[in-house]
Amino acid sequence: MLTFTPADYEAIGLSIKVAITATILSLPLGFLLSYILTYGVFRGKLLLEVLINLPLTLPPVVIGYFLLILLGRHGWLGGMLEAAGIRIIFTWKAAVIASAVVGFPLLVRSIRIGMETIDRQLIHASRTLGAHWYDTLFTIILPLSTRGIIAGSSLMFARSLGEFGATIIVAGNIPGVTQTIPLAIYEYAASPGSETMALSLCVVSVLLSLVVLIFHEVMGLKLVRRS
Amino acid sequence: MEMRVNAGKSYGAIAMDFDFAVSGERVGIFGESGSGKSTLVGMLAGLLQPDQGEITLDGESLFSSERRINIPPERRRIAVVFQQPTLFPHLSVESNLLYGFRRTLPEQRTIDFATLVDVLNLEGLLERGVNNLSGGEKQRVSLGRAVLANPRLLLMDEPMSALDDNLKFQIIPYLKIVSEQFKIPYFFISHSLVEMRLMADQVIVVSGGRNAALTTADQLARVRMGSSPVGYINLLKVKTPRRVEGLFAYSWGNRELLISAGDDQAEALFELSSKDIILCKRHPEAISARNLIACTVANTFVSGNRIGVELACGDQLMVAEVVESAAEELGIRTGSELFAVIKAVAFRRLG
User: Fold this and answer.
1) Going by DSSP bridges, is the β-strand pair B2-11/B52-57 parallel, antiparallel, or unpaired?
2) Using beta carbons and an 8 Å cutoff, which residues of B are at the interface with A?
3) ipTM of the assembly?
């Protein structure tokens, strides 16, 4: 029998909120960077590509530590935000940033794969028919990248749900404030006699992942049928 | 339309350098695969930036490395019909057709949507998705979409190469009607001399990333006759067929041709290779070939090791080819009278 405490419900809600916010906030930048990496010809492209993909290869804890240095009270960005009355560290916003940074390469990769399958002649045709580059971006590239965008968003959402290492460093593990499902499971796992609670949250995690995967597949099928 | 091009582009060790000036409404760019035609098309449309040089259209500079001008493709008003139809797969036929139209300034819209749909016979397709169209329908939509952008120049980049022979020659009338009815000058790019002769008055021959002097498609076909495996292709417009003993008798000017691959359509276009015409000095007594046409030598020309013989058959012309010894034996000179012998199966239907 699954058992949940009020804090567990908050953790589930927060996990979903963090994953949705991180994914939505990352989408515009992810799409723009995918466009630049797919179609741009410029110096430093390789460096940009490496920087975007770096979180894939770095341990999340390292990413969290870098974010802590950047966003901490005495950090370069954190200091400025603190002066403006905005506090990020150890709030749910820090969990969003941690999730966004860790999941961002997955989002960009998927969108880019989608963009790379677009026939360049379609883009050329659009331009010679009078469309400016931004017009082509929104009327041709964006609609034809939908599958990549859905795949990338699903992957990023799922990755955000499971984010642990970076989140615990920058957001902490404060029940009701920054405690997401993985952090709550970690806490239960470290407390003797809480196996049922840990297992209940594991089941929720599995269910959420299934929902994301099913959504991804259904949307993919719909797009295939439409085309 | 007047186009001047003096522009070059290099791809590593491969250098392309084009230098020509052409004026006219029906211009062909002829060249084999890899000759640089697509690079030239890309530079004209603004899809490829030349390394140096200048391109002008009707006196307006589209590109000038010296003056640092490079008009982007959307402002050149040069539409392209690509090899593959390249229709936008997420849009309906109607939305594809209107894509360029909606991006054209109202004062530049001289072509009416309904008229174009009627001319290209697209009425029944407008609501359909583009993935449900046949190859020929796709190319007609692609052509209509380019025309509706009201371009001042249309680049047709091998628009028939993706189609099979039957469809190819169904598309040609549409290409012609569109340019004639809507008065859009075009560059027709192809590696097919037959297509070139049907579509272009003047031809720029491109080879190895360079262009030769302007010529006509017919002149080019004559020059290449001796080296071409198919010889010179005569294009014969015939009409009013009637059935005669399992064959079709077509009127060809004031002569008649017996053709096996005919049908009941009132007008037809056939090709006949210069290699499939036998010349005789006298009327043969009995022969299996069904066409024995009395003709007069109007002209001769040399192409490689062949002699091209231009024959006046009534009010029509066709070209046969013979080797030099045959020409001597037949005593071929301008004004000679000969018989052309052609089998009924030698004609190939084009459209």
Assistant:
1) antiparallel
2) 45-47, 72-74, 76-80, 82, 84, 86, 88-90, 99-100, 103-104, 129, 131, 145-146, 149
3) 0.88
A1 occurs within a structural domain: no
Spatial distance between the Cα atoms of A153 and A162, rounded to a whole number of angstroms: 14
Closest CA to B250 of B230, B228, B272: B272
Comparing alpha-carbon positions, the chain B residue that sits nearest to A133 is: B74
* pLDDT tens figures, A187-224: 999 888 888 999 999 999 999 999 998 998 898 888 87
* The total number of structural domains that make up chain A: 1
Q: Which of residues 170-209 of A touch B (CB under 8 A)?
A: none
Write down the mean pLDDT value for chain B: 93
Q: How many CA atoms lie within 13 A of B121 on its CB side?
A: 11
Please tell me what DSSP assigns to residue A191: S
For the beta carbon of residue B274, count every other beta carbon within 10 angstroms: 25
Task: Return the residue of A nearest to B153 by Cα.
Answer: A128
When pLDDT is averaged across residues B54-78 and rounded to a whole number, the result is: 97
Query: Which of B86, B99, B131 is nearest residue A121 as measured by Cβ atoms?
Result: B86
Average pLDDT value for residue range A106-125: 96
Q: What is the pLDDT of residue A227?
A: 65
Phi, psi of B155 (to 5 degrees): -105, 115
Phi first, then psi, for residue B102 (nearest 5°) are: -70, -20
Chain center to CA of B265: 22
Alpha-carbon gap, residue A80 to A74, rounded angstroms: 9
Chain centre distance of CA B263: 24
Give the separation between CA A154 and CA A117, rounded to whole angstroms. 19
Provide mean pLDDT across the span B191-213. 91
Contact B144, B156 (CB under 8 A): no
Per-residue pLDDT, B312: 97
Looking at residues B189-199, what average pLDDT do you find? 92
Note down the domain range covering A177.
Answer: 6-226
Contact state of A131 with B74 under an 8 Å Cβ cutoff: yes
**Contact A118/B at CB under 8 A:** no
For tokens 């002149």, name the residue.
B219
In this model, does residue B166 exceed pLDDT 80? no
Q: What single-letter amino acid sits at B261?
A: A
- From A226's Cα to the closest Cα of chain B, the distance in A is 8
- Asked whether B154 and B79 are in contact (CB, 8 A), the reply is yes
CB of A222 less than 8 A from some CB of B: no
Mean pLDDT value across residues A4-22: 94
| Residue whose structure tokens are 């034809």 | A144
* Interatomic CA distance for residues A138 and A156, integer angstroms: 22
Lowest mean pLDDT among A18-22, A25-29, A217-221, B39-43: A217-221
Neighbours of B172 (CB within 10 A): 18
Q: What number of C-beta contacts closer than 8 Å exist between A and B?
A: 68
Say which CATH number the domain at A72 has.
1.10.3720.10
Nearest to A131 by CA among B115, B158, B38, B91: B91
Domains in chain B, start-ordered, CATH in brackets? 2-224 (3.40.50.300), 233-349 (2.40.50.100)
